[in-house]
Specification:
It is built from 14 helices and 21 strands. By secondary structure, it is α/β, with parallel strands linked by helices. It has three domains: 4-53, no CATH class; 67-398, Spore Coat Polysaccharide Biosynthesis Protein SpsA, Chain A, CATH 3.90.550.10; 407-472, no CATH class. Strands 4-3-2-10-14-11-19 form a seven-stranded mixed beta sheet. A three-stranded antiparallel beta sheet has the order 1-12-13, with no helix packed on it. α1 packs antiparallel against α2 (17-25) and α8 (215-221) crosses α12. The relative contact order is 0.14. The mean pLDDT is 96. It binds uridine 5'-triphosphate. The site of uridine 5'-triphosphate (UTP) has 23 residues, from loops.
Length: 472
């Protein structure tokens, strides 16, 4: 730990004199906490980020070579789905596949007081997202007679709460030795004009989790990557904590990713057809020689609206943040500086402690820059990345907002709709509303079925009563 004077002079040398002066005058345990916290950062690197992403920031111009990404379409029969399914199943059975959930976000839009994974989400019994995923893992382990380790990335903001939640619920019946929690890193927030590092209170820097893209570094630093290597894990099924419909173990996708001649088996993704040209999802594109996710805000409007002869959107491959990523590729991204991921900047309101006046300031306008990395930026670093289309209801029911689009209400409707679709496929009659939506709330536990074929027609009712709420 460098003494105060050494750290203060380092801060001076990177242009953080206000913080240097404050640190030198600070006393007591708070001063020590702050000293410890600042020393954990590579200050030279922080200075480089402030220079690059601060008030002098220049956004890169849109790439001229952008075109729609090719993908394996849902109804395309030119590739052998059954073959890749069996290849994927072999990998799963051989214990070479693990699940990876990113759960370190702040969940600010949902406004839930706790980690988002603890949010009551299932449509009848209000099971938490974590419980739903745990049961899906349990059911897959049973189906394939295998072990599927589960890696969960948290952040300093929710790590303890997440672990306690699992302990309180006895890890939902999973073996705790096969669940590993690890924390992602944080980035310091800084003033958007001056580049001054901000304090959240007299003893702490204002920081934010470094984005889901922080996963690569965190997997390495935490020892999770080493754990995977020692268990012989080759592929990770990646999903976000807020999508209860994610098919978290999908043999077809895993098989296609690992064995298709078109894939380098490093980083593959799932897409759904966009609901409208301006839906706020990233879009899979070809940029130069590689595939990439272009954020909705970065896709020029004239491209986003472009249609083909059938009137379909040309740029229609919406990302649902489901990927298969190889352990080898993660190791490369995490350890080889030539694979360093960029940061994305967001200008946000960050309350702070003013070191000069000693006052807490609650800004009314965005005052600070937050930096995050994104998992999907690794896509363009893969030699050959592939994209697989899937059905929206089957795999995308995100819980992002408290109300409206992508809220708990829409998520529950989609969960119920998916259950209804599976029951219809097994001959059950489902009541509908005039608009075609399901007139019932149906919760289908993953323990009962992971796909329609798992449902035993003999055990199913002939029909569901209109307006009923049932669990199967
Ligand atoms: P979102 O981009 O939806 O962010 O994260 P969020 O933090 O959950 O919610 P808002 O924007 O504050 O309302 C997508 C996924 O990435 C994870 C989240 O936990 C979620 O599963 N994530 C996001 C991280 O793990 N770390 C981060 O730093 C950011």
């Amino acid at each position: 730990m460098p003494p105060v004077a050494t750290l203060a002079s380092q801060l001076e040398s990177i242009g953080q004199s206000k913080l240097a002066i404050y640190l030198q005058g600070a006393t007591g345990s708070g001063a020590q906490l702050l000293l410890d916290e600042i020393s954990k950062f590579n200050l030279e690197q922080v200075a480089t980020y402030i220079k690059q992403y601060g008030s002098q920031f220049v956004a890169s111009p849109p790439d001229e070579t952008i075109s729609p990404a090719p993908y394996f379409a849902l109804n395309d029969t030119s590739w052998d789905r059954a073959l890749y399914q069996s290849k994927g199943e072999e990998l799963i059975k051989a214990g070479k596949v693990a699940c990876f959930t990113v759960a370190g976000g702040q969940g600010s839009r949902l406004g839930f007081n706790g980690p988002k994974g603890c949010y009551p989400t299932s449509c009848v019994n209000n099971k938490s997202l974590f419980e739903m995923f745990a049961q899906t893992i349990y059911a897959n382990q049973r189906k394939y007679s295998t072990t599927i380790p589960w890696y969960i990335m948290t952040s300093p903001l929710n790590h303890e709460q997440t672990q306690s939640f699992f302990k309180e619920h006895n890890h939902f019946g999973l073996d705790p030795d096969n669940i590993m929690f690890f924390q992602q890193g944080v980035m310091p927030s800084f003033d958007k004009e001056t580049g001054d590092l901000l304090l959240s209170d007299p003893a702490h820097l204002a920081t934010n989790p470094d984005g889901h893209g922080g996963a690569y570094k965190a997997l390495h630093v935490s020892g999770a990557l080493e754990d995977m290597q020692s268990r012989g894990i080759e592929q990770l099924s990646y999903f976000q904590v807020d999508n209860p419909n994610a098919k978290i173990i999908d043999p077809v996708f895993i098989g296609l990713h690992a064995f298709s001649p078109e894939s380098s088996a490093e980083f593959s993704s799932k897409m759904v057809a966009k609901a409208s040209w301006n839906e706020k999802v990233g879009v899979f594109c070809r940029v130069g020689d590689h595939l990439a996710v272009v954020e909705y805000s970065d896709l020029p409007e004239e491209l986003a609206q472009m249609t083909n002869e059938q009137g379909e959107l040309m740029f229609n491959a919406g990302s649902i943040a489901i990927h298969t990523i190889s352990v080898k590729f993660i190791d490369q991204i995490a350890t080889d500086p030539k694979y360093a991921l960029p940061f994305h900047r967001a200008v946000k309101k960050v309350p702070y402690f003013d070191t000069q006046t000693g006052q807490h300031v609650d800004p009314s306008e965005p005052n600070a820059i937050k930096l995050e990395q994104f998992v999907f930026d690794a896509m363009s670093l893969a030699d050959n990345s592939i994209v697989l289309e899937t059905d929206r209801v089957e795999e995308f029911a995100p819980v992002k907002n408290a109300t409206g689009t992508d809220s708990i209400i829409t998520s529950k409707q989609l969960q119920s709709q998916r259950a209804a679709n599976w029951l219809i496929a097994r001959g059950v009659s489902i009541p509908t509303n005039p608009d075609g939506s399901v007139n019932a709330t149906i919760e289908l536990s993953p323990i009962t079925a992971l796909c329609p074929e798992d449902l035993d027609s003999e055990q199913l009712p002939d029909a569901i009563k209109p307006g009923s709420s049932i669990t199967l």
